[in-house]
Amino acid sequence: MSNIIVTGPRLHLRQAEERDIDYIMSLEEDPENLKFIVPFTREMHLAVIRSGEDSMDVLVERKDTGEPVGYLWVAGLRNTSHEIEWTHVIIGKKGQGYGHEAMKLLKLWTFEVMKAHRAWMDCKDYNARALHLYEAEGMVREGLIRETILTEGRYENLVILGILDREYRARRAQGLELPVPGREPQEDGR
Predict the structure, then answer these.
(1) Under 8 Å between Cβ of 15 and 60
(2) What pLDDT, on the 0 to 100 scale, is given for residue 2?
(3) Do the strands 68-75 and 55-62 form a parallel or antiparallel pair, or are they unpaired?
(4) Which of these CATH numbers, 3.40.630.30, 1.10.760.10, 3.30.420.40, 3.20.20.70, describes 4-173?
(5) In whole numbers, what is the pLDDT of the chain averaged over residues?
(6) With contact defined as beta carbons under 8 Å apart, do 147 and 157 qualify?
(7) pLDDT digits (tens, 9 = 90+) for 5-39
(8) Helix (H) or strand (E) segment spanning residue 48
(9) CA 181 to chain centre
(10) 35-38, long-range: CB within 8 Å, 24+ apart, which pairs?
(11) Residue 188 has pLDDT above 70, yes or no
């Protein structure tokens, strides 16, 4: 049985298995996605799936059909500062709201299950669609790393975004996040 880590209204997040590598690689190698990421190798994904303790590949799937609609890489699972990095948030089925739900599920898992204090990510500064999604989902721009990635002879900038557990809880109290399964919401959002 697949290892589902969190479930939402339409989607669930599932820990990736070796059978998912081709799908993950197809998302990373898609020209529409490739320009916005630094791709990982098949071997890196296999190593994480087989024995990763600090990182995990995660599939975003439709609940009703099991069809994959995206993939995430999370790192820092054993970080003593309780900080998790979200890497490679790639949605293959764009324009259907899957990105928003996937981000809400990722936050729910990060802060409610993993009990993280902080989550962060980076994003190329010209990826307007992703930056809009991340900021709409409560991520705060924390900084800019200038000319840090060399891509096809051109240096690119990365925007650093983060969200703290208290910011997530404030959003949940405002009804902006998914409810925690099996828990009635309290007035203070806990």
Answers:
(1) no
(2) 66
(3) antiparallel
(4) 3.40.630.30
(5) 93
(6) yes
(7) 999 999 999 999 999 999 999 999 999 999 999 88
(8) helix 42-51
(9) 20
(10) 36/123, 36/124, 36/127, 36/130, 37/88, 37/90, 38/149
(11) no
